[in-house]
Amino acid sequence: MDAAKELARRSANFRSVDSRPGGLAVPVSILRAPALLLTFTIISVAQLAVFELGWLDDWFPARDYVFGPYDGGHAISIRTFILSFYIAFSAFAAGTVRARVEFGLDLVLRFLVICALLDLCSTALFGLIGEPYPLGVLQVIAGLLGFGIFSFVILERGTMPESVPVRIDRQFAMRSLIRLAVTGLVAAILSVWAGFHDLEALDSLREAALLGGIGPGVVLFLFLLFVQLYVIATVERQLLSREDFAAPLSVIVPAHNEAYVIEETILQIERAARQYAAPVELIVLDNASTDDTAEIARKALAECETVQGRVVHVARPGKAHALNTGVAAARHDYIVRIDADTQIGPESFRLTMQNFAHANTGAVGGVPIPPGGAQFDGGRLVEVLLKHSYYSPGLTAITGLVGIPGMFVIYRAEALRRAGAFAAGMNGEDTDISLRIAELGFRTLVDERVRYVSEVPTSFAHLREQRLRWFRSIYHVSSRARTLILSPRVTIRGKLILPYMLMNNARRAMTVPILIFGLFELLLTRATNTQLSWQAVAAVVFGSPMLVAVIAIALAREPRALLSLPSYAFFRGLRAWYTLESALTIPINTRPHTIRLPETAIPPSSDIPPLSEHQETS
């Protein structure tokens, strides 16, 4: 990229109506999270001091809020941590004083009840068999439940999109459950076998624990589980695809203030079309741009020889409105969505379409590789290899894939239209539509062979804006799909993956606070196992995620990404910080409150402006 384009890239206006959907998000000062952390630290240190002075030893000898009998020790006083975080977060959440107080009480009381039930069960077990339950296990369970309570109370009390029923049809739930059960059993047997043998590799990881007990056994189990799923998905993709399959494509490119990059995006689409054995039409959707996006796109389309292109002006702001207009204008049975700042590879169309030889395939995406050279590109590279090149194929094997990145994805038009329109006025419209396509029974997958270059923010401000949207989208998508989570029908996505995504979002929001808490507990208390405490704190950032990242890099055959592991550690820290800020942008209410999103039905083709008025053809 030359100097002029690089300057334009850095100065591009990245904010839009999608940055903070009306009613669903409020602005958050960059000082709010630090103030929250300061308050959290004060609350935590006060409780740690009380425990350290021994004032509560008669009731809580574990020096955490544990009253039942137990065996062994723990690394972090997770219950004290969770309660401290709940109180501090409630003080700085978005909402009225009453709403925040009720929100905090709701969190604290639910968590205390759960902890009391855990300890009562431990007491009952002790009475039955005379052996107390391991404290480490109790603390792990309490911590995981604490994460879950946080996300689900936000989902319940936060302002969220109105739930829209998810149509479930032609599910292969039983096959997915059997696959998950068999692979889980194999992973468990191998993990237990390894635990009974003196393996040096496991011994070196023995003390690498998070939340007082998640050690190498769990790491090994998850590794063995996902490796099996990855292999199954890869073999299945090869069996169900056909190298010579091709069909006409309609490419839709929503563009808002993309003057600096739209020409290159169009030229890369033209190059891919030249290597593809079927016609390709390209529709650039100029979505209320205030720069020269439309004019530059017209000039670039005029130079195309293979692609038949046009520009459609979409006056209504919002990416979903542009996408729905593009779907209505598309003439072919396969619709390609490409973001305006994405440069696809020469073989992207050919490789992706091979998967549509199977008649039930509904949507296929690829792996978004960063362009390189900017400050966040190294960390982003490891992130996408881990998430999209490793976890996504694995989840495909059990029909558990929820979202396909909207930067590049090909839809079967029938599946897209049956699932409904792209949702406007919320974050995560790409995840929402792919979830709905999948729950209709269509096969959705990420083909790890398909690589494309997707823009990465070059400034902290842009990265913050992007990540606040992305992490908030987990709540928005889950709220719109609430019926799927609560439905009596069992699907992997509804009963396992979506709840896990919510819990994991909470865990990430608490990453920086738990580091602070662990360090203060280590420094201020008489820890009986200092080494374990240090490792428990360090594992939050380094631990198993870094080990799995190495595995993902090896499977993706991207050894250069190993050099980016230090950048990834820093990137994970930023990601955790922005997840906390993202939660602070959600308005909290005294009672459940949802917002009906703007109507987003796909307009009839007759509503698309005629070619002579608003479109250009090359």
TrEMBL record:
SUPFAM superfamilies: Nucleotide-diphospho-sugar transferases. Residues 250-416 form the Glycosyltransferase 2-like domain. The chain crosses the membrane at residues 35-56, 76-95, 107-129, 135-155, 176-196, 208-232, 509-528, 534-556. One of its GO terms (molecular function) is glycosyltransferase activity. Residues 599-618 are annotated as: Disordered. Gene3D superfamilies: Spore Coat Polysaccharide Biosynthesis Protein SpsA, Chain A. Keywords: Glycosyltransferase, Membrane, Transferase, Transmembrane, Transmembrane helix. Pfam families: Glycos_transf_2 (PF00535). InterPro entries: Glyco_trans_2-like, Nucleotide-diphossugar_trans. Belongs to the glycosyltransferase 2 family. This is Glucosaminyltransferase. It comes from Novosphingobium pentaromativorans. The lineage of its organism: Bacteria, Pseudomonadati, Pseudomonadota, Alphaproteobacteria, Sphingomonadales.
